[in-house]
Input
Amino acid sequence: MKDKKYKKLIVWDKAMDFIEMLYKTTHKFPDTEIYGLTSQLRRASTSIALNIAEGSAGSSDVEYKRYLNIALRSSYEVMCGLELAQRLRFLEINEGDHLIKLCDEISAMIYGLKKCLSK
Output
């Protein structure tokens, strides 16, 4: 396996862009949420890209898929957190829906990458 092959993956690049958007969005959350939902969403979104990268350096496709599963679970955690932020009115509905849609697209790409590794 080549070093840093994850940088060639569109899904990793989209995950990195998503992290930036999420950080900017959560910056507007109430200060009381810095150790709550803000922190949780930031950690979970970061986990998506980190696990894609970490898995790509593994020694087998089985190991890579394990990390992709973690990334996929983190994406669902983010989507749930964004829905909660909408309910708590930390996010406008349209802004939250846009981020959820982007995260769902990343999830689909991760699932597709897992499927390719199974072949």
Observations:
- The chain has a mean pLDDT of 95.
